[in-house]
Amino acid sequence: MKKLNFVATIMLMCLSTTVCAQWWTGMSTKTGLALCIHLTDSSADLYSPMQTTAPIPVSKWSYSEGKLDMESKAIGLKINLTQRDGIFSGHWKQGFLKEEITFYPSDTIFTLRRPQTPQPPYRFDEETITADYTDSQGNKVHIEGTLSIPKGTVSRCPCIVLVSGSGQQNRDEEIMQHKPFLVLADYLATRGIAVLRYDDRGMGASTGEVEKADTRLFSEDAEAMFNAIKTNSRINPNRLGIGGHSEGGAIAPMVAARNRDVKFVVMMAGQGCTGRDVLLQQNEALFKAQGVSDSLVTIRLKVMADVFGLEKNATQAQYKDIVERYTKSLTTEQRDSIGLGKGAVYQLYKQMGNSWMQSFLTLNPAEYLPKVTCPILAIQGTKDCQVLAEPNLAGITKLAGKRAQCQVFAGLNHLFQHCTTGSPDEYMLIEETFAPEAMKAVADFILGL
């Protein structure tokens, strides 16, 4: 689930001839995002610091008699504020979301603390690794990443190639200013383990067709990077494995199933059920984590099950028929609570028409997990609402048998953070990036082989 992009830059004309430079901070309760305005005598900038440091120009702005209005057509954003008693209050609207918001004076821009993120000089040496090849669809692909090798290494190191989750991500698997792969690489370096992490195709320094790419195609990128590191003089090829998080946790065993040079696999929140089942489990867990009643969640699941059964070329009218069939007796508030309110039909129609989604629905671990011959570590958090621990670890155990070692960590979410509910809404405000006990499990597994 992706957050909305609340980032815009505005220019402000003030009636006052002197405005002291000052920060103002508001918080969206619907998205969990902080919004910050910086005012000067001649300008005002609006930021979404929990997402990015860069502002985006808006198309319209005005300030008159204490009323500030701004619009960004690029992201469909409108903000209307009135200044009273030292604060700005009003509302913002973006797409189908609308919410009242208040901006209070603050000393500086809102910042997210990420205490685990390592800072230079790092505890490892770095080397750029690249792979250039033509994928099975005939697309030319360039993948680029960073090999981190523990400082002071005098012999060949064990090494793990890391594969990120769904969506295009950089080599740190950066999300909401968390950099889990960088944090993991830093920790593993202290245990004498090298790490290769790379930018997904279409992200950072990597290039390649993205629009029609699916999980199986992304596995080719992962294997290309694995092969690129096999002959590195600082890596021990007999202790070289591949690991991934979320979708990457499916890709890692896919590669191992066809490449016998893979000596171990680490599945971090990887799936042991079909893509269809994972998504249904996810829908149930996410809405329950948000406090939605069981009866309404059941309706949501019935809608999604029918939607998943539609053909790829299904019409928008077919999606509408399904949604209306189950929600016609619900109030607007009830529909909204399960994500089936205004605009839901179009969103489902567009999402399900995506090549990646159509492929993921049919992704079945039974096709590759039984073919993996090397040791597997599968780790999950009990509060993971995106890839549920119990059914997926059960699936991995059934399909991989004694080759799989499974560990469950109490209180950890999909990102392996200690959390309260496990909902993705918490990811941003949690300061921890990667629970130490989960990282230790990965290191202990690799060193114990």
Briefly say what this structure is.
This protein is of the alpha/beta class and 449 residues long.
Strand arrangement, largest sheet?
A: 1-4-3-2-9-8-7-6-5
Q: Indicate the percent of residues in helices.
A: 25-40%
N-to-C order of helices and strands: EEEEEEEEEEEEHEHEHEHHHHHHEHEH
Helix/strand/pairing category: alpha/beta
Q: What is the residue-mean pLDDT, rounded to a whole number?
A: 90
Number of beta-strand segments: 17
**Cα distance, first to last residue?**
36 Å
CATH superfamily placement of the largest domain? Alpha/Beta hydrolase fold, catalytic domain
List the helices and strands and how they pair.
Layout lengths: L7 E3 L11 E6 L6 E6 L4 E4 L12 E5 L2 E6 L4 E8 L2 E8 L2 E10 L17 E11 L5 E11 L6 E7 L16 H11 L3 E5 L16 H15 L5 E11 L1 H12 L6 E4 L6 H15 L4 H15 L7 H12 L4 H6 L6 H9 L2 H8 L13 E6 L7 H12 L3 E6 L26 H12 L2
Parallel strand pairs: 12-13, 12-14, 14-15, 15-16, 16-17
Antiparallel strand pairs: 1-4, 2-3, 2-9, 3-4, 5-6, 6-7, 7-8, 8-9, 10-11, 11-13
Helix pairs in contact: 2-3, 4-5, 5-6, 6-8
What features would you describe in this structure?
This protein folds into three domains: 99 residues, Lipocalin (Beta Barrel); 236 residues, Rossmann fold (3-Layer(aba) Sandwich); 83 residues, no CATH class. Helix content is 28%, strand content 26%. It has eleven helices and 17 strands. Helix 5 packs antiparallel against helix 6 and helix 6 packs across helix 8. The protein is globular and about 70 Å long. The N terminus is likely disordered.
